[in-house]
Write a sequence for this structure.
């Protein structure tokens, strides 16, 4: 059996990698939103985060690997969208470094068009991405929703909300709309908040 990362943000980062193109397909703010939402979802599924008045609140004390729960505990009540957007770009770098230190990925520096410095991510073992994709695919097309692994259900919900084409191309998001809604309902409030955040930003950009 192929070993995969334990954390949901790390899994979502790897799912954003396209094995055929050998590059990240979800980048920028969308990836940051998905990863922050993954951290919130992980806390929610484990009972360390609850909800009060459509806002996240601390739940049962426990591990807080990314410090998100500490941020929420130290703040006045704020929306899910606020916590998804907060530090989202820096959070991508945090998760990427976690995966690099763990030996899951390689990060190399290069220049785009020979001019602009950027980082290139390479997954060291493609079988890890295939295993994660297989879990998400099974959640989408396989067993009854109640029996789906909670992280696989969350992966589908977050990928759909973040429009991650590496996991769910547009046609699949439409074809499996009802199933995605059922998996999202199992995964907590963070994934719907990602979808609303992206929609609001798109509408604002359109004027």
């Amino acid at each position: 059996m192929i070993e995969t990362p334990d954390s949901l943000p790390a899994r979502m980062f790897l799912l954003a990698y396209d094995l055929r193109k050998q590059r990240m397909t979800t980048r920028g703010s969308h990836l940051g939103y998905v990863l922050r939402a993954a951290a919130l979802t992980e806390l929610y599924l484990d009972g360390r985060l609850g909800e009060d008045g459509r806002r996240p609140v601390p739940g049962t004390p426990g591990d807080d690997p990314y410090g998100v729960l500490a941020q929420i505990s130290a703040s006045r009540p704020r929306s899910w969208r606020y916590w998804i957007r907060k530090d989202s770009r820096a959070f991508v770098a945090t998760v990427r470094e976690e995966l690099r230190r763990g030996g899951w990925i390689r990060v190399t520096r290069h220049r785009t068009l020979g001019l602009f410095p950027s980082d290139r991510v390479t997954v060291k073992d493609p079988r890890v991405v295939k295993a994660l994709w297989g879990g998400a695919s099974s959640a989408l097309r396989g067993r009854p929703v109640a029996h789906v692994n909670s992280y696989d259900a969350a992966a589908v919900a977050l990928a759909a909300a973040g429009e991650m084409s590496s996991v769910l191309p547009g046609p699949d998001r439409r074809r499996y709309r009802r199933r995605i809604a059922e998996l999202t309902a199992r995964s907590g409030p963070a994934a719907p908040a990602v979808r609303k955040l992206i929609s609001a930003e798109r509408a604002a950009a359109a004027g």
User: Anything to note?
Assistant: The chain has a mean pLDDT of 93. Strands lie at 17-18, 23-24, 49-52, 55-58, 105-112, 116-123. The longest strand covers residues 105-112.
